[in-house]
């Protein structure tokens, strides 16, 4: 197989052979990712209480997906899949990355910011990172956002600390920022706006990642965003959604002000379903079964919207299933960059789904969440059918999620042949994924780095 370096050289040669054309014909990319927002946490998806005017505006200007999925029921793995197009156990970020464990996004993985940078794009990441452990973050012995293709970055390891209010743990291009006064989402959006207006090279197309902390715990919400909810016991959470919606509006306004909105593909989604515990009542799955950490729909079906003027019909809806790992292939297609050929890419381009047309998948939609319930540790979807397996891969549940989106009618006993068919595909797929990923990371059990291993491969 080609090495990563060989692929990047091939890409440069390929780009050099292209017929030159105006830079403005190459679309900009914005991926706006929120943290722990449920499928039912906005007015766009039927919530009658939470106010999300900017999401409503985005929906009116683009497409709303009714069946958008995160690649995992928890944070770090779903983020790794967005950047690499590869299911988490394959790309190595198999678990929620915290503490001092060895798991991290390896530099042997190829990210879409790397490929776009090689293709002449300017790249920026602002917000949460969470793709290396606490001991690795901002430690030059280990990969940082800049090692994965970002020219400019301002990030936290995991959550904004001590909360969303006045966070003090941001790092900008390797230097600690110190206390930032305000609330996390607007602060992150302000950094994105500053980069768009003052720092980027306007002669180049750009790729911008805006990864908010909201509405992840511990929540802190500006009183002005709580005010519309009066004395509702869940006003802090609902106001937190409105706070992140405000941040989305800040970025959308900045794109308009810079005159680049019409040539920008903007994707909005969440890293997993809602938490729903702690000091707040929590988010809404919109009636879906399960929550964050589950491989039932409530843990993995998330908001998904996209806007690309002139290419996506304004105000349209799509019920085509798409997943976070599809962002990789989608971005590369619209930017005219070829997919890597030396590795399995699990995701596919969403471009047909933008128009409500089906996508063709060589690899089924697949989830394996290490902290899910014992009965829903793994899941796979093919067409209308979803198989959910237990921790030991010995017991399986079958659902027709196209019709039974609440997963109320388990069909394995009624349809044993379909269950066995899906089971055979899932077990074969898992065997392939397990063999490719760094299985020593999840088989070790200690989840601690080995002495002398810098883990940067």
UniProtKB/TrEMBL annotation:
Residues 1-22 form the signal peptide. Pfam families: Sulfatase. PROSITE patterns: SULFATASE_1, SULFATASE_2. The keyword Signal applies. Residues 27-337 form the Sulfatase N-terminal domain. Keywords: Calcium, Hydrolase, Metal-binding, Signal. This is Sulfatase-like hydrolase/transferase. It comes from the Bacteria. GO terms for molecular function: arylsulfatase activity; metal ion binding. Transmembrane segments: none annotated. Belongs to the sulfatase family. InterPro entries: Alkaline_phosphatase_core_sf, Sulfatase, Sulfatase_CS, Sulfatase_N.
């Amino acid at each position: 197989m080609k090495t990563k370096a060989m692929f990047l050289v091939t890409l440069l040669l390929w780009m050099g052979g292209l017929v030159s054309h105006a830079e403005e014909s190459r679309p900009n990319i914005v991926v706006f990712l929120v943290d722990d927002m449920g499928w039912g946490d906005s007015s766009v998806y039927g919530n009658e209480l939470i106010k999300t005017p900017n999401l409503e505006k985005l929906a009116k200007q683009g497409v709303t997906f009714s069946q958008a999925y995160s690649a995992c029921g928890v944070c770090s793995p779903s983020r790794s899949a967005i950047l690499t197009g590869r299911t988490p156990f394959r790309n190595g970020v198999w678990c929620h990355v915290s503490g001092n464990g060895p798991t991290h996004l390896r530099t042997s993985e190829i990210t879409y910011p790397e490929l776009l940078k090689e293709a002449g794009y300017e790249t920026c990441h602002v917000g949460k990172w969470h793709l290396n452990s606490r001991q690795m973050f901002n430690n030059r012995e280990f990969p940082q956002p800049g090692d994965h293709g970002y020219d400019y970055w301002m990030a936290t390891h995991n959550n904004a600390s001590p909360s969303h209010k006045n966070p003090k743990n941001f790092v900008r291009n390797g230097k600690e920022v110190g206390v930032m006064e305000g609330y996390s989402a607007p602060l992150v959006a302000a950094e994105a706006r500053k980069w768009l207006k003052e720092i980027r090279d306007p002669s180049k197309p750009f790729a911008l990642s805006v990864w908010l902390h909201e509405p992840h715990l511990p929540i802190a919400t500006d009183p002005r965003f709580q005010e519309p909810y009066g004395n509702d016991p869940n006003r802090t959470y609902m106001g937190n959604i409105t706070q992140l919606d405000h941040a989305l509006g800040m970025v959308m306004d900045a794109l308009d002000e810079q005159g680049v909105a019409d040539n920008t593909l903007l994707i909005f989604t969440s890293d997993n379903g809602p938490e729903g515990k702690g000091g707040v009542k929590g988010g809404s799955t919109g009636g879906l079964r399960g929550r964050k950490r589950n491989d039932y729909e409530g843990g993995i079906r998330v908001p998904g919207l996209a806007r690309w003027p002139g290419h996506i019909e304004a105000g349209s809806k799509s019920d085509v299933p798409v997943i976070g790992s599809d962002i990789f292939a989608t971005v590369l297609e619209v930017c005219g960059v070829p997919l890597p050929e030396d590795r399995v890419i699990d995701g596919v381009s969403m471009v047909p789904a933008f128009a409500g047309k089906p996508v063709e998948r060589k690899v089924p939609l697949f989830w394996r969440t290490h902290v899910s319930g014992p009965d829903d540790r793994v899941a796979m979807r093919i067409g209308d059918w979803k198989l959910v397996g237990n921790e030991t891969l010995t017991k399986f549940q079958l659902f027709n999620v196209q019709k039974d989106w609440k997963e109320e009618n388990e069909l394995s006993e009624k349809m044993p042949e379909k269950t066995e068919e899906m089971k055979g595909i899932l077990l074969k797929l898992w065997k392939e994924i397990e063999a490719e990923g760094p299985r020593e990371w999840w088989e070790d059990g200690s989840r601690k780095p080995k002495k002398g291993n810098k883990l940067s491969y």
